[in-house]
């Protein structure tokens, strides 16, 4: 079995692309305009993808227990970009030697964990 993608239902594709592409640095793999008010964008994550799905007729409620995690080169660099854009980045935590992380919510309220390995 191979893990293919994680779908995130988004309220606004442009806002979400700005967060994931411009602020976190993910690359767009494929974009599809399915119909009026219905768009898909796949972000390349190597062996799997993140699918941003925007459909005006869809409920975009995200469960509070769901988070996704990304490894970043520098938490401080990403924190600076996010805070400059008005995102509230949580307190840095270091639960084990050689690893630290922060939490932030994407434009849709999805928890995103940013991890730096030292």
Which features does this protein show?
globular, alpha/beta, four-stranded mixed β-sheet, about 120 residues, 2,3-Dihydroxybiphenyl 1,2-Dioxygenase, domain 1
Account of the protein in words:
The chain is α/β, with parallel strands linked by helices. It has one domain (5-117): 2,3-Dihydroxybiphenyl 1,2-Dioxygenase, domain 1 (Roll). Helix content is 18%, strand content 43%. The protein has 2 helices and 8 strands. The chain has a 4-stranded mixed beta sheet with strand order 1-4-3-2, covered by helices on one side. Strand 2 and strand 3 form a beta hairpin.
* Full CATH superfamily name: 2,3-Dihydroxybiphenyl 1,2-Dioxygenase, domain 1
Shape: globular
Instruction: Give the overall average pLDDT.
Output: 93
> Order of helices and strands, N to C?
EHEEEEHEEE
Provide the CATH architecture: Roll
CA radius of gyration:
15 Å
Task: Determine the N-to-C terminus distance.
Answer: 31 Å
Top CATH class: Alpha Beta
Strand portion: 35-45%
Number of beta strands: 8
Q: Helix fraction?
A: 10-25%
- Tell me the CATH topology: 2,3-Dihydroxybiphenyl 1,2-Dioxygenase, domain 1
Summarize this, please?
The protein is of the alpha/beta class.
Topology (SSEs and partners):
Layout: E1 5-9, H1 13-23, E2 27-35, E3 38-44, E4 49-55, E5 67-71, H2 75-84, E6 93-96, E7 99-105, E8 111-117
Parallel strand pairs: 1-4, 5-8
Antiparallel strand pairs: 2-3, 3-4, 6-7, 7-8
